[in-house]
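Hello Y.,

Per our agreement to keep a running log of every chain we model this quarter, I'm adding this entry. I've kept the format consistent with earlier entries: sequence first, then predicted structure.
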Amino acid sequence: DTGADFSVIQRDSTLGKLSTVSGATNRKVKMGEEYVESIKIGDVDFRNTFAQNADLKGLKEQIPSFGGIIGRPIINKSNWLIDYPNKKLRISNENLVNETFETIRIIRNDGAPYTFISIEGIQYKVIIDFGSSSEFNLPRESKLAKQLTQQHNFTDNERDRYTIGGLQTVKEKVGIVPLIKLGNMEFENVYTTVNISSQPRIGIGFFKDCQIYIDNINDSYKIKK
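Predicted structure for the entry above:
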């Protein structure tokens, strides 16, 4: 979850000092704080990692053997190659890609990765949030959301969504944006949701046809379609 300030360990009851955490919909909950001596992903061992802990009801029931959420304190320690079409993940402290990948512009805001997308020649700043399954999500009060819902055929939708604080039923508008550009790459017919959200974001669904490389050696993101 590149949108998460911290990793979260699933625990039936909180441990350690409590702190207030807010999520993508601005709901707030209390979580415990701890240092985890060892978190292993495959053969890679992440040592002495700060994490928060909570009982993530609404999410744990959906994922077998659910252990928690990998946030930026772990993500920032390695390079990650996410092959979304083939559902494969590689982790290394060495370079994993070549010049066929396109480097996209990244801006850090409180550690979170932001980039710029282009719609009809106008650039918009968005967070890259791999904790979101959305392709493209907009806060309903934003100027861009109002513009797109007027220009394109958006319909009403209702569904359950998990954010910090548990499952909630959200009412939203959904539609298709014909073309969004990211760097020199074009993404066609992007499924777009407009609902309660803290900020514009492109989720992991946006990159469903891509390999995504999080390059922490050079602090960049690289994409190949």
